[in-house]
Amino acid sequence: MAADSDVFKALGDATRRAILDELTDKDGQTLFEICGRLTMKHGLASSRQAISQHLAVLEQAGLVRTRRQGRYKFHHLDTEPLRAIVERWPIDREEPNP
Amino acid sequence: MAADSDVFKALGDATRRAILDELTDKDGQTLFEICGRLTMKHGLASSRQAISQHLAVLEQAGLVRTRRQGRYKFHHLDTEPLRAIVERWPIDREEPNP
DNA sequence: GTTATAGGCAAGTCGCGGCTTGCCTGTCAA
DNA sequence: TTGACAGGCAAGCCGCGACTTGCCTATAAC
Q1: One matching Pfam family, short form (chains A, B) (predicted)?
Q2: Which chain A residues have a beta carbon less than 8 Å from that of B17?
Q3: By Cβ atoms counted within 10 A, which residue in A36, A55, A57, B49 is the most buried?
Q4: Structural fold of domain B4-86
């Protein structure tokens, strides 16, 4: 379903946002690849199961799509659900006059 | 400071999003006014203290600014912090071709 | 075959966040 | 001055979510 609520909940966690950052940097990574990168860059707690559960949340929110291939599962970023939440409140796009 | 983390955390709660919706509909409301409206429209749990704490979170995130006047405290929406989070990930703005 | 790799599932722990409860401060009207 | 109204503060309860632990399945390499 990917309700707005799920999207906001998914974005509410710092580790999940870091995962989205990672997929933005390199799309189509596997679970272990993401784990490795997260432990490298950020000092985030990133055990395999933790990341797996985070990915499940992101997938349910529609922010991540998966593609199975053999024993690998590639994760792809999908920013489409972000459009709805972006347009929810009026955002001033103009720069403040100095 | 209003770190990105605070903004996402603030947006993670449904009641707080409803408050932002309310302020979008009518800016500059007081605490009791918001309480009344929330109980009207949504069946959300919206005791005075609960809403007060939610407003504190929104204020810390920079999404709400307050203005004191006598015994009233008016709450104003500020969508500026949303700009940063909107631009964090690439969002496809084109409509899908039908 | 056997072993290592990539991932899944389920139960359990634990801290944080949302909400309540109770009481207090400050402002306005009578 | 007294009472009603708008809001604040602090401690406590409690459920949910993040993380772990342990074990299991499946694909690929040897």
Answers
A1: HTH_20
A2: 8, 88
A3: A55
A4: Arc Repressor Mutant, subunit A (1.10.10)
- Tell me the C-alpha distance between A76 and A67, whole Å: 8
Calculated CA dihedral for residues A38, A41, A45, A50, nearest 10 degrees? -10
Q: Helices A48-60 and A4-11 sit at what angle, rounded to 10 degrees?
A: 150
Pair type for strands B72-77 and B64-69:
antiparallel
Nearest to B21 by CA among B37, B8, B9: B37
pLDDT tens per residue, range A25-49:
999 999 999 999 998 876 666 799 9
Render pLDDT for B53-89 as a digit per residue (tens, 0 to 9).
999 999 999 999 999 999 999 999 999 999 888 889 9
How many residues are listed for chain A in this entry? 98
Cβ of B91 within 8 Å of Cβ of A82? The answer is: yes
Angle separating helix axes B48-60 and B31-41, nearest 10 degrees: 110
